[in-house]
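hey team, just a heads up i'm posting the complex here instead of the shared drive bc the drive is being weird again. everything in one block, sequence lines first with there labels, then the predicted structure for the whole assembly after. its three chains so it's a bit long, scroll down
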Amino acid sequence: MSKFRLYLEENNRSPVKQLWREFKRQHSAMTGLVLFISFFVISLLAPFITPHDPYLQVDELLLLPPSWSAAGLVQYPFGTDDLGRDLLSRMIKGTSYTFGFALITVTGALLMGLLLGALAGMSKGVKSSVFNHVLDLALTIPSLLLAIIIVAITGPGLMNTTWAIMLALLPQFVHGIRNAIDEELKQDYVIAYRLDGANDWDVFSRLILPNIWEKLTIMVTMGISTAILDIAALGFLGFGAQAPLSEWGAMISDSLDLIYLAPSSVAIPGLLIFSAVLSVNLVGDGLKTAILKRRQS
Amino acid sequence: MSRYLLRRLYLMAFVFLALSLFAFSLGYLFPGDVIQNLSGLRQIDDEQRQQLINYYQLDQNYLQQYLAFLSRIAQGNWGLSFASQQPLLQEIKLLLPATLELTAYALLLSFILGIPLGIVAAFKPHSLIGKSISALAIAGYSLPIFWWGLLLIMLFSLALGWLPSAGRLGVLYEIPHSSGFMLVDILQADVKYRSEAFHNALRHLLLPTIVLATFPTTVMIRFVRDAMLNVWEQNYIKTAQAKGLSRGQVLYRHGLRNALLPVIRQIGLQFSTLITLAMLTEVIFSWPGIGRWLIDSIYQRNYPAIQAGLLVISTMVITINMLTEILHALFNPLARRG
Amino acid sequence: MNLSNYCSTHTIYCCAYTKYAAALLVAWLMLSGCQPQMPQTARSGLVYCSEGSPESFNPQLVTSGTTIDIISQQLYDRLVDIDPDNGDIVAGLATSWHVSADGTRYQFNLRDNVSFHSTRYFSPSRKFNANDVQFTFNRITDLNHPFHFEAGGIYPYFQSVDWANLVKKVEAIDDYTVTFELQRPDSSFLSNLATDFAAILSAEYGQQLLAAKQPGQIDRLPVGTGPFRFREYQKDILVRFYRHNDYWRGNTQPEQLVFDIVPNNARRMAKLFTHECDIVAYPRVAELELIAKREDVTVQESTSMNVGFWAFNTQKPPFDQLEVRQALGMAINRAAIMQAVYYGKATPAYGILPPTSWAYNAGLPAPMYSPAKARALLTKAGYPNGFTMNIWAMPVQRLYNPNALKMAELMQADLAQIGIKANIISYEWNSFRQKLGNYEHDSVLIGWAADNADPDNFFRPLLSCAARDSGSNRANWCDPMFDDIIGQALLTADQQQRRALYLTAQQYLHQQQPLVAIAHSQRFQAISSSVSGVSINPYGGISLQHAKRVSP
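-- predicted structure starts here --
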């Protein structure tokens, strides 16, 4: 949208600052960011801030209702599960599993994606063509299905799940990075820089990386939301985190048996997954809008 | 166009080659005995083992084994399921229609809801309606589907008792299996309780369809909204408006056609996600489709079934992907390049 | 759905109608959902929600209670039955019987005018007679019987009670008289004939299948004399039976009986509440109070002879060491298990035999909970730092253990206290049993429910060497001393003598601890209030012969 400007504004702030200014203006994005940061902090500090040991089974306090009901206790805000473990502590601990591991997964996938994407984007000819075809195949297999197959080979467990999802996310990342690099390589300034005698590495590190990081961040946010959902889904199906780990998806499937007695123990972990994914998506959407606006201004 | 088609076909052939290689290698990657994984037989005595080694050409090199694998797949000789000791292809034939039925209705629903809502959101981005549609879209986009399904079951089946919680049809109705598509089968069935059964099947369909349609609907809303906003910026729209066409005319004649063109491609891109979500939906609603079967197969360490399931689902996804791309190219000559 | 097709091509203008129509459709579906309109034919059927699929349709081949519940009492009859009230042996297909003085020859007089099922794959030309009895039991013992090796030649229950070495000959004296000649007296013989495993098959059907060269069908498409006949089986989805109209006991009401296969506990209860199921055999004990409050569901309760236990694979180190087994037994906090898993609806088990049995040993000491002593024992056994082990927890809910996975989680925490790292392992039920039969486990949480009132039913099928060879001895335990004691108890019919021997056997088990008995659970059953005639059977599988719908 071209805007009519009466006065010429001074507009030479750094791109990051401009982006932040546009981002800040969106309330939903800011809410998402605050939520995201809180999840991040909780997942880092989880071992220190749980009010109780998340694995401690207290025999006297089985299936304690949440504290807002008459029979609940203040010390156990969300009540306890059927083994007498504090649900709040388990959920806090679960943040590191579901949310924290999603971040790790995406970081891993991003690093590998950058390497492969750069190789693919910078190379030409038959090698690149074969590589692209393989990528096309990997892209058509649904990521969760791929993760499930990998888990079927390696056996269930949170670590295996992390690897599986990392591998499953990789094709999207490589694809996105490759396309972004491709686009950059077509720019005139790249050719100019090359004529100046720059080699591939110079072009990549000085021109391409600074110009694709915006696309990368959006890719990363999408990756995180997929990773959270996939980790939780695998946990729910019993292929991911194994007992007694309190991964959110696994917590839901544990509480399924108690759906009549303690519906909140199904509802709350789900709500957490939902808000974690929502926070990531809000940030991602906000970034997208902010980038668009920054380019237009 | 024919050059485009040729290129697509070549690509497809390559993708299938790679897929078959992957599926082939699974037989060796899975834990346990290779012969058992390939044949699906549980108990194998020595004599049988020798026969099977010959049959699968396990004494030959890997290329020979791979070729033998291809010819078996082509002949429909997919081995047995560990769990039931029945031919896998036969089992899949029974299950696939259930998944396709559910997926098709969900996709349809996502179009019916997603496109109009997306258009509305694009036109009134700052109104209450537009904002709530966008908010709903991002919320729906973030829902963990298994939890969403559980919530709906808790509300509509358990708390209110309005809708059944699982399955495709009340078990007391006995409908002969012909096409595998429940509604079609019921209409074709020669039974006294046909209309009750049809009604019952619809009630079973409702919740899973809504759950499965949630994600594609929100994607559709966001996609159509962005596409519409994008199209609305184009010069030809401004030209049309300048010519004095009414808003509705501009929208219908120029806006929609151009904005919805990429939607065709979207079906293909959506399909892969949809199948994954269908697997989870089937688990939640005990829907007897291929997704639930595949997940059960993993619980049962039923390796031949996992391999076959991967092959079928991926083939389906690839085919639909390619078909929609070709269709898209048919309508949009620009897409044939590159 | 045609509506929507129409609308998708005319996107915007008709979307208002679409939404309207969709809303109407939803409203219609939901409103009519409040009053399910079942057609006449469908209404006369009953739905039983089962926790698993049947492994086979021949009771001779299985031991799983899930399978027995589905197939045994519904499809078949036995020569003799058990009176559910007092556990006595009563007439079944045999009207009367006679035992020779030395206890090695049993003669049965058979009921006439009993017809086999007439199905789409078999039409009987004659009534039930002595040939069928001979055919049925020779299949188990006679290696030359055309069907003996049909399903691999393994008859787990019969092998676990050493049937093949016990029964010398089954002879048809005339059409309605049959004799069993035994190698030695066996006081549990009649009780074993009364179990659900001793179902009578049709010899004529066997001949027909042989002629058609399709012998494998005998265990897949069953023919029996029971109150229901087989209609169809959709794997992992449902089993459908129709009423057997010529049933000799008569008056079976439901025209069809459907076993809806719902492995998930919560989902099974959900189906009961939404009236998709009429009967749920094992409601979750956690929710009993909640269920009892509902008007549309009745809960039945009775004592039952069963035991839930934790068996060690005694052939695998370190479980071959007595100290290790004892240590593990002491490390477990049963009080927590009784509360968290059984919700107080069970009595703690001191040994495998439940207190209701006449051979119960009341002198067994109460199990001890002492992590400190357990640690000392482990140190003595050479594992001061503990070790890593598997706990296999069965994936389904059974009478004797409502939630093995949860029990395993409790134990996992208990074992961590004495330095043992336990991994919980679970497979789908049928794979689980298969792998157990191959003794792939370290230890397993499983149990046993009595098939008859005889105490032998708790010893030989569970812990004898014969049971180990047939793959049903979960402890993989074979001790000649123990086999000798329980073998002697079978040679006499005198209850006092038998009782003394069984007391010794229990004492011996307590010393050796091949397994840790955990609890004897109450048996519960939840049925829809619109169904009557379903009573709890303390022994063996459930019988739905008298079940009927009272109000539509």
